[in-house]
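S1.2 Input.
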Amino acid sequence: MSFERVASLADVPTDEALGVTVDRYDVAIARDGDDVYALQDLCSHAAVQLSEGEVAECTIECWLHGSTFDLRTGKPTSLPATEPVATFPVEVRDGDIYVDVTTTLNGVTPA
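S1.3 Output.
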């Protein structure tokens, strides 16, 4: 695995996501309690950045059409989105967040 530091834990609010770029991918970093997640920062329904939406109850909402995605699996939990978004491995080390975009956790190929 090839982890790259993307932010400090303090940079990610509890109710919002942080948009970062790792290699050629835009990634949304989000928190649910002490857990940190990384998803491709692109709604599968429309070309909209998920990092601009709200984070609540282990989901992230696309601000444009209201689709929500599970932070753990990338699967949509409400319409209009029907396709999952890629999720990436995350490690937190000494208050810093590291993401590996060379593989996905859910098998979805990033767009």
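S1.4 Remarks. The chain has a mean pLDDT of 96.
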